[in-house]
Amino acid sequence: MKVTVSVLMQQPYMKNVQVLAGERSLSNQVDCVSVLEDVEAGAGTVKNTLLLTNGLFFSLYGPERLTKAAATYARIKTAAICLKMDRKEVHDTFLQAANRYSLPVLLLPQDAILSSIISGVTYEIFYRSGYNMSNSYEDNFIQEMVLVEQDRQMMVKRARMLGIKVDEYLAVLLVYPRKTVSIGAICKFCKEVWDPTCLICSRNGIVMIVLRMKPPYETTGERLRLRAQQLYELLRGHLSGDQINIGAGHCYEDVSDLRKSYYEARTALITGKMRHMNKGVFLYDQMGVYRILFSLKNRK
What we know:
With 300 residues, the chain is of the alpha/beta class. It has 12 helices and 10 strands. The protein has helices at residues 5-9, 39-43, 56-59, 63-75, 92-100, 114-128, 137-147, 152-161, 183-194, 220-238, 258-274, 290-293; strands at residues 18-21, 32-35, 49-54, 80-84, 105-108, 169-177, 199-203, 206-213, 244-248, 281-283. Strands 1-5-4-3-2 form a 5-stranded mixed β-sheet. Strand 2, helix 2 and strand 3 (49-54) form a beta-alpha-beta unit. It is elongated and about 75 Å long.
């Protein structure tokens, strides 16, 4: 269930909030919350952001510039702007522009605590997005990125929160062990022994790993093969010979392609097992024509 401005207005930390403009758009979806420090900074926010600000926002800029700002925020699909200030300080020209562009503007009570609002909104977003609150942010991030269609801008922002840099290349590896093997033990081994920089989680008995690699991009294919083979051999030794299989998807330059890499890794894993290959590591890039024949999109 998506989080909307109207849903947030019903929460205790938003008690006594007033709608000053854009009442018709209170159904706007909210994907994140941020603090608006100045007009220029606000224009760089991602869409569906709930912006919080105070009287400084109006004291620094005149009505004409604020009117243009309202148009900008509406264009980039800002969910709403929440003001913590005296109603008398709010420029009517800004509210008129906000109404014209259907941009919700909310007035917070003077005793509102912005940190509580940020925490509450963040929790509501995660909870209603299906996050498992008992899991780490990293675990939820990986599952969301590879299993759910996401807005690219939002994906990039969340990836940055985990330290993924712009110049990194990403690929998904799937480790499929025998049922007798502890999934938790594999996750711990991968993170502590094999690669502390990787992102890792588990789902339905399969370990999902996001492998991070540095430039140059041209050598990522070979490096991915070597890393997957290294992981296979290390796990075989760690698990005392227990059978495991590893599927690896293509390495991509953009975090928004993680979902592709995940399904490619699944295809490689299924193909290798169906063909009864004994090498243990199956790379999507080395499947040749089987990439078409065994694609999850071509089951029929």
